[in-house]
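Action item from last week, closing it out:
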Amino acid sequence: MKKKYSIHLIILDGCSIAALETAYTPAIDSIMDMGCYTYKCSSIYPSVTYSCHASIITGVYPSKHGIVGNSFYDKLTRKRIDFDIEDPNNYLETDTLFSMLNEPSIAVAEPISHGATTSIPKSDIESNPIPNWDAIVFDKAIELIYKYLPRVSVVNLPGIDKYGEIYGPTGDETIRHIEEIDTYINRYIEVLTGLYEDFLLIITADHGMTDVETNLDLKELLKELGCEVHVSHRMAHIYIFNQKDMEIILHRLKDTGGIDKVFTKHRLKLYGLDNERAGDIIVFAQEGFEFSHEVLKGSHGGVSKDEMKVPLIISKPEYVDLLRGDIDITIIPSIIRRYLRERDVIDFVKERLVENDPGHDWGHTKRVLDIATDLSIRYKSNIEAVRLSALFHDIDRGIEPYGHEVRAAQTAEKYLSSKGASRELVETVKRIILMHHKEPTVHSTYEEMILWDADKLDALGVIGLFRCLLIAGFYRHEYKDALNHFIDDTISFGVSMHFDETRRIASQRIKWTIEFLEKLASIY
């Protein structure tokens, strides 16, 4: 038997948008076509591996989670903390999505894995030859999914980052590797489809990558001054021990070619970096420059568009509202929480709807949900509130229609509040539900109009006729009562829709019904 639902996050470590657009990726493209995506999602400052992964997994910036770079200087112990050696999980200053959700979970090659039920360290993967890294990641992930059927999985693909560093962000070898990964993703989806009734797949990158060709040695530049330099590729934290050297260091940095931006402590709050672990000065390289000693063709850590913009791909279209405006990778835990909450709502609603008459069962609710979702996407309304309202709108109706919208709103409020929904969301859902049985002329928001139209569209057409017949049979009414009910709904609802699209659908459904009844009459 299939597990009910799950959510899966794939991180294309270091994958630039240019590389993804260049590669032939039919599996990823099909997810984009089926769901929603943006290329305008931002990484965070600094755009380095450990900081970015910490922000993806915690939903906050380095100012809160404390992973301010790939390394930092611990002022208390006077030691260098290097996350290529130390476990970054031991230095997190906030919860992860694993610990917040408290769901069965796996993390494969994900450096931030605190709270995951089962994890395979990134170092275990990277002990193998580089060309095999990402294939091993998928093999291990699939093995764990079969074994544990987790509710949440996070899979990180470190090979893309390494290929980009060696061959360049859009080098031929890098592109071929991304195309190979696409075949793994296709296999991964096939596994998930076989194991779960429903799942959400999110694909993103922790940061992008830019071409580099020149190394700039900051440690050499500042070697006689009272400071310590911690380089994370194209950015660096500079910790100053002698404050009298501050101005000298700042002038030297600003007068040196290859340096793009220089921030001091008072500016860090603007960039989510105001943490005690941050340097007294933070430096970002100009495009084409690398601060580390490695000779690389691609790197990251800076603030160029190629480094800061990442893909964010979601396998369902109803999350498109979360992709509007200025967003960054800290939004990912919110997407995950939203999906899991809604799936819990679906289970709860299904269980309660068995007490309803057959015309107001799960089938009706699901059709209203689908129509309302399409309308919410089309008219750019509050998709989450509309979907939750559609799910709850007929709950606790039972066999007594009168006042059911009040009972439904009360149940929605109680349930959503228990699941940690915001007060604003709860109040919006309540209002939409309460308005779905009001006259169409009194609706004041798109959300109210959408649920009303979606609910009433399901009363029209052949489906509406069959629902009336089911309801009549359930209440032991006459056949003519069902027809009168249907005719009243058709006359009342057919001309009362709020949108051009719903008016078009209503007209089409009424036309089909007339044709159906005429054919039925000609036969009998």
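Closing note: The mean pLDDT is 94.
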